[in-house]
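assembly run, all chains below
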Amino acid sequence: MHSGAPIRALVFDAYGTLFDVHSISIACEAMFPGRGADISRLWRTKQLEYTWLRSLMDRYADFETITRDALVYACGALGLELAQSNALGLIESYRQLSAFSEVKDALAAMHSRKRAILSNGSPAMLNTLVEHAGMSRLFDAIISVDELKMFKPHPSVYGLATRYLGVSASEIGFVSSNFWDVSGASSFGFRTFWINRNNSQPDELGFEPVAVVRRLDELLPYLN
Amino acid sequence: MHSGAPIRALVFDAYGTLFDVHSISIACEAMFPGRGADISRLWRTKQLEYTWLRSLMDRYADFETITRDALVYACGALGLELAQSNALGLIESYRQLSAFSEVKDALAAMHSRKRAILSNGSPAMLNTLVEHAGMSRLFDAIISVDELKMFKPHPSVYGLATRYLGVSASEIGFVSSNFWDVSGASSFGFRTFWINRNNSQPDELGFEPVAVVRRLDELLPYLN
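ok done. output:
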């Protein structure tokens, strides 16, 4: 089912890949009835845009700041008044996301390999997230882009994983639900797997994953 | 109305700033009745995303290639079959955009200063566009990011304008309808003007323009 060197380590994106961001939409809907889906969609779009734009501008701000800025934009663009307490509550919801139902067992089944998270999230956000989900012992490393002051998909970010894990790029299996993240990781030299939970359209960035799966446990056959 | 050194040169973004991209939406609607607005919105979103992502990935492709890739994505995501002839026709429409009605007279009125275009567009796209609009004699330089293999808002792109015009950053007035472009140019050190034709929400990227106007001719009082 695969070719080349064995996969010695697995590196996972966090938001949307291991952790379900759907509860964000529910929290938005509770605060702004009828507008939850609009807010969460625009909020996420701008959150990503700001990571890319600030990286290119060489004006890094951490992911929590960017998440807050994107929320301010989204509410402003939709003509909604964002109270300070609501903003704090919504940002806080990013720290307490649930893992997708199959994630914990699937990660445990991959125990013979090094496992790590590589995320745009700030260290404080990621550590809280993993502890809250009771998954701290499932990872050899929780790696934030923060030390580089640069977001995905800059190659240096993917390079962090090779350094932390002591494994070369071609021996790393990289797993993300974001196709652009898969593209960046493929471009860097990782063996990539796209988790396409919602039948999304792949981006046209010149790079393809090794395989596409719908859930994390569907990765296991590719690791034999 | 302004402070600091006089503005010795004016640098303009092209698409959406000087040239009206609305005809793209009309062409989309003609090919895919009822879906024109959806296509053109998603197409534009992905076109910009791909410029940022490829810049960060260090995988430059020229703007015409990216524009075509983004169109392929948009039609795929919307479940629409894109014939090769339709793709070529839509890409071609980018070469023949009309200038906004006030642009030619406003540029002529700014003749005492150097004037340039600084755009993500490829040299071939930009030259055709400016010639088609009969505006070749109104510019001292038509500058494409292509020679750097990097898109806006990377600082090096704005640096091109200082080099081509022989004017320092603080003496350049930069004009764009894209707030993120204004942010990148402000971060670089230009005096920036945001053309907000459609009452859009400003992005939260930590930089503000010197002034906001609704049309190009409203810039003139700031240049006295």
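The longest helix of chain A spans residues 36-57.

The mean pLDDT of chain A is 95.

not gonna interpret more than that til we talk
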